[in-house]
Amino acid sequence: MVHQQTTLIPPAIPPDKQETGYISSAQTEPNSIDTYACGLDESHPCNTISHCITQLIQDFVTNVEVFSEKIRETKGVDCGTNAYTIYGQSDSIATVETELEAAWLTLFSVSTGSLTARDFVLVHDSVHPNNRGSRPFEITGAGEMHISGVNLSVGSGPSAETAFSTELIYVQRGIFLMENVNWEKTISTTSMFSLSSTNDISFALFACAFDGKERTIINR
Length: 220
Hints:
Layout: E1 20-23, H1 49-56, E2 63-66, E3 70-73, E4 77-80, E5 83-88, E6 95-98, E7 106-110, E8 114-123, H2 129-132, E9 135-139, E10 144-153, E11 169-171, E12 174-179, E13 182-184, E14 193-195, E15 201-210, E16 213-219
């Protein structure tokens, strides 16, 4: 008797039927597992943003809702040429902690697409060696990135021994907007922001606080 292997194929969901993917933590939601069919509803969320976007339903989902108090990301999220909104649930404080598996990874990367990230806490702790050489945000093409209402923390506070060795925001070209962002406790051996001087860039910070000091910067 010959047994044939069955390949599981994600369900074909028309774009007008599925717009939101759901993320939670296995610690708070027992059904939160990165599988081929996760993220389609709140009862079976994915465990990571990267899986939901890059491996599962990127052709259908434009919004990703984080409704867990805390999730952990080990892989980068490459939005590529697509448009995504990643946001925390309004009635809870969603926290995304990074512990990237390679030093060259970027948490949120856009080429010619767009990303809106809003209303969550991002903890990019330099206590993890790979995080020190990794960027949370990057635009490599003529894309757009809008960061709003995000509390960007680097954990308990880096020291000279655990300083970042790369910029935390890199814009090669395109549009970068950050507003109502609180940035805490950063020590780095290089600039926090890096903008290419040879390409067209629109860069703006509105009502952002760095270690409690508010700044507004516009560069067009």
